[in-house]
Amino acid sequence: MADVPLREVLLGFTGKDYTIVAASKAAMRGATILKASDDKTRMLNDRTLMAYTGEAGDTVQFAEYIQANVQLYSMRNSTDLGPSAVANFVRGELAKSLRSRNPYTVNLLLGGMDPITNKPHLYWLDYLASLAQVPYAAHGYAQYYCLSILDKHHHPDIDFDQGMKILRMCTDELKRRLPIDFKGMLVKVIDKDGIREVEYDDSRQVLSA
Question: What's the rounded Cα separation, in Å, for the pair 191 and 114?
Answer without folding.
Answer: 9
